Amino acid sequence: MSNGVKSKLKRKSRIRRHRRVRAKVYGTAKVPRLSVRRSNKHIYCQLVNDEKGITLISASDLEIKGKAQKGESDKSRQVEVAYLVGKLIAQKALEQKLKKVVFDRGYYKYHGRIRALAEGARAGGLVF
To answer: Among residues 31, 96, 100, 110, which is most buried (max CB within 10 A)?
Structure first.
């Protein structure tokens, strides 16, 4: 299988996975959607009210002090930082009196940094 065909299949699988997740997940004012976005270097998450189309709270690894230094690309360190971001979003949500959320992993598979963020949010007190 050539590289072009393989990348098209990966993209189609990713789009299919995203549609499947988003068809089931919807955020409200009382139970917002915890949306996750990751890049190769960073991870971001936000609580979204889909009824009004607004972001209620956001957090990212850019807010974490003492994260991996520039040039350090240790994957286990990225997982640790994702866990801390989950705890940070949970802390911000509890300050706004939001305890229950629905988790939107997007088109990402539930493992690695996405799983660590979810576990950190649960450890921080969010219920989903």
So the answer is: 31
Are residues 119 and 103 in contact, defined by beta-carbon separation less than 8 angstroms?
Answer: no
What proportions of the chain, in percent to the nearest 5, are helix, strand and coil? 45, 20, 35
Element (H, E) at 12: helix 3-24
Give strand pairing partners of 37: 44
Read off the tokens for 1.
């299988």
Closest by CA to 121, choosing from 106, 108, 102, 96, is: 102
pLDDT digits (tens, 9 = 90+) for 36-65: 999 999 999 999 999 999 999 999 999 987
pLDDT for residue 67: 59
Residue with tokens 């889909």: 50
pTM over the 0.90 mark: no
Domains along the chain with CATH numbers: 3-124 (3.30.420.100)
> What are the distances in angstroms from CA 70 to CA 55, 66, 81?
29, 11, 14
Query: Own/partner pairs for 66-69, CB < 8 Å, 24+ apart?
Result: none
